[in-house]
Amino acid sequence: MPHSLTPRDQLIVALDYPTAAAALALVDALDGQCLWFKVGLELYLAAGAPIVTTLRQRGFNVFLDLKLHDIPNTVASAVRSVSSLGASLLTLHAAGGPAMLAAAAEAASATPDAPTLLAVTVLTSMDNTQLNSIGVPGTPADQVLRLAHMAAAAGVPNLVCSSEELTALRRDLGPSPRLVVPGIRPTGASTDDQQRIATPAAAIAAGASMLVVGRPITKAANPAKAAEAILHEISGL
């Protein structure tokens, strides 16, 4: 993990919108403060590849959060397909297993301009009850560590995790993996549908590489000021 990241390198704003126009209006409202934007399923299914191209043409970095989860051949083909778009990061579910992850890693290594792959461990909306209901015993932290070790062994060391697992992951995996953390809520903000959350400052202190922030910025009366406040939290000001 690079140690010279600035707060602007560490903040990813989630463009969780149903249209490209709405997403780009938010980008404009941020007035160049943010360098990274997340394109997730909602926006990608509505706007398609052109939204990624547009953001790249404007000079922004794209976190393409598609959470790929299918048979190994299909996921490997998907990795090759999206590589031409210019996204810097791409997610896939660690729960797809070692064969799927290894196929994705092999496809990425053999494809020019492939994004860095991130293995999603356990969604931040899931707590013990949710996890146990799908047949996974133990705590989310147990499962995150299990999946993280498996993903690293399969060639995908970079992860999406909650803030609660950061200390254990850094202890086990060291400083190199990129750990991207959603479920970030500034002090006093609503938790919405997230279960495992943290403030920006706490997540960075615990070892997060990058933070994904959505509603605290996108639903703010002044998104640029909300983003600025989070950048200040990240920097410790």
TrEMBL record:
- The regions listed as transmembrane in this protein's record are none
Q: Which PROSITE patterns match?
A: OMPDECASE
In this chain the Orotidine 5'-phosphate decarboxylase domain maps to 10-230
Q: What pathway is this protein said to act in by its record? A: Pyrimidine metabolism; UMP biosynthesis via de novo pathway; UMP from orotate: step 2/2
Provide the catalytic activity annotation: orotidine 5'-phosphate + H(+) = UMP + CO2
Name the InterPro entries for this protein.
Aldolase_TIM, OMPdecase, OMPdecase_AS, OMPdecase_bac, OMPdeCOase_dom, RibuloseP-bd_barrel
**Which residues carry out catalysis?**
65, 67, 70
Q: Which GO terms describe its biological process?
A: 'de novo' pyrimidine nucleobase biosynthetic process; 'de novo' UMP biosynthetic process
Q: Which family does it belong to?
A: Belongs to the OMP decarboxylase family. Type 1 subfamily.
Its biological purpose is as follows: Catalyzes the decarboxylation of orotidine 5'-monophosphate (OMP) to uridine 5'-monophosphate (UMP).
User: Sorted alphabetically, which PANTHER family does this protein's record hold?
Assistant: OROTIDINE 5'-PHOSPHATE DECARBOXYLASE (PTHR32119)
What is the protein named? Orotidine 5'-phosphate decarboxylase
Q: Which organism is it from?
A: Granulicella tundricola (strain ATCC BAA-1859 / DSM 23138 / MP5ACTX9)
Name the gene for this chain: pyrF
